[in-house]
Specification:
Helix 3 packs antiparallel against helix 4. The protein is of the alpha+beta class. A six-stranded antiparallel β-sheet has the order 1-2-3-4-5-6. Helix content is 40%, strand content 16%. A hairpin with a 5-residue loop joins strand 2 (94-99) and strand 3 (105-110).
Amino acid sequence: MHKKILIILLTATVIAVTAVFMLVAKYVFYNDYIKRQNSTIKFKNFINIFDEALSHYNPNEDEYEDESEFITKYIKPYAKNSQIILTKNELGENITSLKFSDGAELYIKRDMCYLIYFDLNGEEKPNVEGSDKFRFILCLYPNACKIPVNKITAFDCTSRKNYDRNKLYGLCKYYGTHCSQLIEYDNWEIKYDYPMNTSY
């Protein structure tokens, strides 16, 4: 009789522990899914703002001398409830950034093209390439890198035409600076197997 009670208690304990583990696993996977979805929404919002701004760009009329003017006159009108922030970098240079209502932030550096740095959670940590910081490029004129004109794209001057998803995944996994290429390949989505943590 005692043996049967012990077996029943052990069975009930195993079932209870299994149920708890399943609930925890379900919560963790669901939580991860929600975080990936939030990051994807931030990326798509960022890209849509640039697509909208670029659809109204006229190279004969619209030429901006510096990053601040570009953000203020060209991007801000399409970013509802955004805020322009003026700071200085480590070298003491003025930096103009645009903080979106969802907490993401971008700043732009002008070179031959506009180098765009996008941060999913603004100045908050970890500030790691591929995790919460990403690089993009926008060229308004034909360029030596042959980057598409008037289109925001992942930053890389080398040709990626022959790169499949596996190659981009490997680059992102080991070099965070390449992660924007994988996200662009995945149609600006953080997929379930994305190799970096993006819980912001």
